[in-house]
Design goal:
The protein contains one helix and nine strands. By secondary structure, it is mostly beta strands. It has one domain: Sandwich (Immunoglobulin-like), CATH 2.60.40. Keywords: Signal.
């Protein structure tokens, strides 16, 4: 092959490579959105710590409450503590929008932290979530804890 033919063949090959379409970056699959968990301030009543939390993944929100021991037992307190039957209430809404749901129920608390599930919803991006969790029993009324959380998708 003479030098002119080589140059022509190389130019043809280079033109073919440059003409081959390359997939755009936008066509690549997007990684799944990360889940962010945020909890409100803890409330304390009768040795128990309560809080309301939200897990946000994109525009999907999971709202739940938690009940745990507020701290170590006082000296002389029987261990393990007697089980406590509790009445729970969990609610959520978007500020300026509608209710995302409300659930109430009963749970028994002994020593381990209890998670009270109940609300899973899709919310508009940019909205503000307001959630509330309350615990009561036959001997004490509810002391709600709250969470205000912007949902940034």
């Amino acid at each position: 092959m003479n030098p002119v033919s080589r140059i022509a063949a190389a130019a043809t090959g280079a033109a073919a490579l440059l003409a081959t379409p390359v997939p755009a970056l936008a066509d690549a699959p997007q990684p799944p959105a990360a889940t962010t968990t945020t909890c409100g301030w803890s409330g304390q009543q009768a040795g128990l710590s309560t809080k309301v939390c939200a897990e946000v993944t994109g525009d999907r929100v999971v709202v739940y409450g938690q009940i745990g021991l507020a701290g170590p037992p006082s000296p002389g307190t029987p261990w393990p503590p007697a089980p406590q039957e509790l009445i729970t209430g969990l609610s959520a809404e978007t500020v300026g929008g509608g209710s995302l749901g409300a659930v109430s129920g009963r749970t028994v608390f002994t020593v381990s932290t209890v998670r009270v599930d109940g609300i899973v919803a899709t919310v508009p991006c940019g909205s503000v979530l307001h959630a509330s969790f309350a615990v009561s029993s036959a001997y004490r009324g509810p002391v709600p804890v709250t969470l205000e959380l912007p949902v940034n998708c």
